[in-house]
């Protein structure tokens, strides 16, 4: 999906991907994260956000909840992280990363609330009254008042499968009274998901129908005297979409794929961010008219399409690659023709690393021509050691 963009705007990462594999610094089924590129992409977004009065929280589930990246992004001016689920929140707390928005897609379960609320997140996303009561009770035990981000899902909007939940904007008058009746919680703002998406025909990021419900909710809340609200407008946050967040009345965004230059907008157009990761694997064997490379890094919506196979960017072939059917485990990916066994295979497809079983290696120093692997991690952001011999 992004292999041509990788060749075009981050050839140093492509070169290093081949070299690191050929030297044995990484094994197949490894995602290489370019810390320099991600840092520069982040700086560009911070600048655009400041110009538009938008606060940014970074989202790192896409690249494996990586603590090295999280710490670097905090250093350059991000105001916290988005933890889409409780495990990510707990991992960020463990690393000392400030929690911006917790529960963006998955509400915090009761027995994780105390640890997470004690870390003083800016907001906790909620979409049930029962969860609000739990948060109020736990916040009371901690002696604090927790701001809530109410997720709005109106009938004229839409949800992804597996993400069902939300308040209807028409509930707000009663819901506001309910929250005001509780001690230790208050309304901090509103969100919906997805609020923005890439429109292929227009080759632009545009509002989704969910924005109508969000706008209704904000209007109702302000009519009831609520001020200084966080208006979170998520999905596809990048330099190009930050002015749109502002134009729609938002003041909060959360770049994920934008940090690695891997939104669909980046595939189809020229954008300020450059590609920040590559997936590296290896030819395992040939069978019939096809070669097969080691798998493990498949994300079902990743659009895995093309690979570079060979020993270097200068000595490689581009060919089609196909993962197995989605009802099978991705032990191998099929290449369209026979290849030399043990040759390097580089791909750059869309991913959600926290859902795969790959290893993640963070490379630093590429922009200065002095690359080193700064850390090795599991797909859930846990440090791992190099366990194989040279």
Q: What's the CATH topology label of the largest domain? A: TIM Barrel
Number of strands: 20
Q: Give the averaged pLDDT, no decimals.
A: 96
Q: Count every helix, treating DSSP H or I runs of 4 or more residues as helices.
A: 11
Tertiary shape: elongated
Strand fraction: 15-25%
Distance from first to last alpha carbon: 32 Å
CATH homologous superfamily assignment of the largest domain:
Alanine racemase
**Under the CATH scheme, which architecture of the largest domain would be assigned?**
Alpha-Beta Barrel
Q: What percent of the residues sit in helical stretches (DSSP H or I)?
A: 25-40%
Query: How many domains in all?
Result: 2
Structural class: alpha/beta
Main beta sheet: strand number and arrangement? Answer: 7 strands, parallel
Helix and strand layout, with pairings?
Layout: H1 3-9, H2 11-23, E1 30-34, H3 35-52, E2 55-56, E3 58-59, H4 67-75, E4 81-83, H5 86-94, E5 99-102, H6 113-118, E6 123-126, H7 129-142, E7 146-151, H8 172-180, E8 185-191, E9 196-199, E10 204-207, H9 210-223, E11 230-232, H10 242-247, E12 252-253, H11 264-268, E13 277-287, E14 290-294, E15 306-312, E16 315-322, E17 332-335, E18 344-347, E19 359-364, E20 372-377
Parallel strand pairs: 1-19, 2-12, 3-4, 4-5, 5-6, 6-7, 7-8, 8-11
Antiparallel strand pairs: 1-13, 9-10, 13-14, 13-18, 14-17, 15-16, 15-18, 16-17, 19-20
Helix pairs in contact: 3-4
């Amino acid at each position: 999906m992004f292999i041509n963009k990788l060749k075009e705007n981050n050839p140093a990462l492509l070169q290093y991907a081949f070299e690191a594999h050929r030297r044995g610094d990484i094994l197949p089924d490894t995602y290489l994260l370019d810390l320099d590129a991600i840092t520069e992409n982040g700086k560009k977004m911070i600048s655009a956000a400041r110009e538009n009065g938008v606060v940014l929280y970074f989202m790192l589930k896409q690249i494996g909840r990586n603590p090295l990246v999280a710490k670097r992004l905090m250093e350059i001016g991000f105001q916290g992280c988005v933890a889409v689920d409780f495990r990510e929140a707990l991992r960020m707390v463990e690393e000392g990363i400030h929690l911006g928005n917790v529960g963006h897609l998955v509400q915090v379960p009761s027995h994780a609330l105390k640890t997470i609320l004690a870390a003083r997140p800016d907001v906790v996303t909620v979409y049930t009254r029962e969860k609000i009561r739990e948060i109020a009770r736990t916040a009371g035990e901690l002696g604090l008042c927790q701001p809530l981000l109410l997720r709005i899902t109106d009938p004229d909007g839409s949800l992804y499968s597996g993400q069902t939940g939300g308040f209807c904007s028409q509930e707000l008058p009663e819901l506001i009274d309910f929250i005001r009746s509780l001690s230790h919680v208050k309304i901090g703002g509103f969100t919906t998901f997805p609020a923005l998406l890439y429109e292929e025909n227009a080759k632009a990021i545009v509002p989704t129908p969910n924005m109508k419900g969000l706008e209704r909710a904000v209007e109702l809340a302000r009519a009831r005297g609520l001020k200084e609200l966080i208006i979170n407008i998520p999905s596809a946050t990048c330099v190009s979409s930050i002015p749109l967040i502002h134009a729609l009345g938002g003041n909060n965004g959360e770049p994920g794929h934008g940090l690695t230059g891997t939104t669909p907008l980046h595939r189809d157009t020229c954008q300020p961010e450059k590609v920040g990761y590559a997936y590296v694997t290896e030819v395992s064997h040939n069978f019939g008219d096809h070669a097969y490379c080691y798998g493990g890094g498949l994300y079902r919506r990743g659009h895995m399409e093309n690979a570079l196979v060979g020993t270097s960017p200068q000595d490689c072939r581009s060919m089609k690659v196909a993962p197995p059917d989605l009802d099978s485990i991705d032990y191998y990916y099929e290449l369209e023709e026979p290849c030399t066994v043990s040759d390097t295979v580089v791909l750059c497809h869309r991913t959600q690393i926290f859902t795969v079983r790959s290893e993640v290696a963070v490379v630093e120093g590429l922009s200065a021509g002095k690359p080193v692997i700064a850390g090795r991690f599991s797909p859930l952001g846990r440090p791992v050691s190099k366990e194989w011999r040279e």
